[in-house]
Design a protein that fits this description.
Elements lengths: L10 H12 L6 H14 L41 E2 H18 L5 H21 L5 E6 L2 H5 L14 E5 L5 H17 L5 H20 L8 H7 L10 H15 L2 H10 L18 H13 L7 H13 L25 H21 L3 E2 L4 E2 L1 H16 L23 H4 L16 H5 L29 H4 L3 H16 L4
Antiparallel strand pairs: 1-2, 2-3, 4-5
Helix pairs in contact: 2-4, 2-18, 3-4, 3-6, 3-18, 4-6, 6-7, 6-9, 7-9, 9-10, 9-11, 11-12, 11-13, 13-14, 13-18
Family: Belongs to the glycosyl hydrolase 9 (cellulase E) family.
Enzyme class: hydrolase
Catalytic activity: Endohydrolysis of (1->4)-beta-D-glucosidic linkages in cellulose, lichenin and cereal beta-D-glucans
């Protein structure tokens, strides 16, 4: 609502009032970046290292893989449970790696190192999942038994079922995303650890071949369906992961074979479909942005349809354009129905910043029909999402745990909500944890850096442990936020 300030105020006070009305909170992006990366230590599975900073966590899942006589320890729990789901873990790894590739030079050196450590905790595990010929391990842990318990990962006594897909059964989605993760991470490690980078790239090619040779969705396989569904079924098809994996291999290798693959398979694999989605299941918007880099640079004009799709998507995010149709909450947060809404806000803001970088380097703008959109506009829109998450919202709450003065205290997370094994060495059995789940007390262990699912379409957040759609953190909400925060550490006022 427009208003005017009466002239009875002196000029200096007028200026101060104007500043307080027009500017949001000044956020400490470097503090938020440190915490966003630290979060991943709270999600670790396996033997924890000596330099583990999240001290309330301890070793867990140490027998993972024994039924195959294979070491499948390590990796990350995806959210507030104790299952290792390969599909979202691989996407998380891709996004952490992309964060370092695009924005790593903007990170303070110690946080750049911490980000690489976070990536390697995942890639060491992903290498194990593709270590056997014509087989990919897609999950460890039976989610039915896991979700019926409320227990610390350190006490885990639920079935650690290993879910594997053997050729000729298909797993194009998980194998394609794993290929993307390993290819992207090979770029992240190229300067600091060339030998490891080469190992990652070699295995990325192997994972992609498995994905492409035996096409289909992993959740269509009877031997894994009951484990992966309904949690991380492939709802949107496997085709996008094939193109996504090929695009990352093209970026990592500059090999024209992968370029040819993208060109020749684009239409048959539905590259122009669902251009407005990006997340652990649907890669289309991210694929289009990724591939557009070479088009904008004038290197590969034959992929212009990807640039067109990328820019069509970005135009939908701008309310002033004729093609706008993305829903926002009254407070300005990108909103999509379903759970864990902040995954959309972080992943979409990430794509806005990446594309803004590509536009800046090539001095281009986007034609959105009735207006032209430049890099600065995209960056300012991304900043609004970031600042909303960090506290500039109707609740006045940071949705990153441990950041700011007011943040979620009762997150849906087993390890955070139960007394730590260091404070309570006795085992807390499956159902014994229920009293902690049902308690209205704040979680005893602060999962620093965790970004929760976030508020509803009305901007309201109840801080309720049982409301997992709003109160559960996930690795794939945090992963793109790492890159976003790195940008704003270096450019707080775009």
């Amino acid at each position: 609502m427009a208003f005017s300030i009466p002239n009875l105020f002196p000029p200096l006070l007028l200026l101060l009032l104007s500043l307080s009305v027009n500017s949001g909170t000044a956020h400490d992006y470097q503090d938020a970046l440190s915490k966003a990366i630290l979060f991943f230590e709270g999600q670790r599975s396996g033997f924890l290292p000596q330099d583990q900073r999240m001290q309330w966590r301890a070793n867990s899942g140490l027998g993972d893989g024994w039924t195959y006589n294979l070491d499948l320890t390590g990796g990350y729990y995806d959210a507030g449970d104790n299952v290792k789901f390969g599909f979202p873990m691989a996407f998380t790894t891709t996004m952490l790696s992309w964060s370092v590739i695009e924005f790593g030079d903007m990170m303070p050196p110690n946080e750049h190192r911490n980000a690489l450590v976070a990536i390697r905790w995942a890639t060491d595990y992903l290498l194990k999942t593709v270590s056997q010929p014509n087989r990919i391990f897609v999950q460890v842990g039976d989610p039915i038994s896991d979700h019926s318990c409320w227990e610390r990962p350190e006490d885990m006594d639920t079935s650690r079922t290993v879910y594997a897909v053997d050729a000729p059964n298909p797993a194009s989605d998980v194998a394609g995303e794993t290929a993307a993760a390993l290819a992207a991470s090979s770029m992240a490690f190229r300067s600091s650890d060339p030998a490891y980078s080469e190992t990652l790239l070699r295995n990325a090619v192997k994972a992609f071949q498995l994905a492409d040779n035996y096409r289909g969705a992993y959740s269509d396989n009877a031997n894994v369906r009951d484990g992966v569904c309904p949690y991380y079924c492939d709802f949107d098809g496997y085709q996008d992961e094939l193109l996504w994996g090929a695009a990352w291999l093209r970026r990592a290798t500059e090999d024209d074979n992968f370029l040819n693959y993208i060109q020749s398979n684009g239409k048959t694999l539905g590259a122009e479909e669902n251009i407005n989605e990006f997340g652990w299941d649907n890669k289309h918007a991210g694929l289009n942005v990724l591939v557009s880099k070479e088009v904008l640079e004038g290197k590969v004009l034959s992929l212009d349809s990807y640039k067109t799709s990328a820019e069509s998507f970005l135009c939908t995010l701008i309310p002033e354009t004729s093609s706008s149709h993305i829903e926002y909450t009254p407070g300005g947060l990108i909103y999509r129905p379903g759970g864990s809404n902040l995954q959309h806000a972080t992943s979409i803001a990430f794509l806005e910043l990446v594309y803004a970088n590509y536009l800046s380097r090539t001095s281009q703008t986007i034609n959105c029909g009735n207006i032209y959109v430049n890099a600065q506009t995209l960056r300012q829109r991304a900043k609004k999402q970031v600042d909303y998450i960090l506290g500039d919202n109707p609740m006045g709450m940071s949705y990153m745990v441990g950041y700011g003065n007011k943040y979620p205290q009762r997150i849906h997370h087993r390890g955070s909500s139960l007394p730590s094994i260091k404070d309570h060495p006795q085992v807390i059995a499956c159902k014994e944890g229920s009293i902690y789940f049902n308690s209205s007390n704040p979680n005893p262990n602060v999962l620093v850096g965790a970004i929760v699912g976030g508020p509803g379409e009305d901007d309201l957040y109840g801080d309720d442990r049982a409301d997992f759609r709003k109160s559960e953190p996930t690795t794939y909400i945090n992963a793109p936020f790492v890159g976003i925060l790195a940008y704003f550490v270096a450019n707080p006022n775009p």
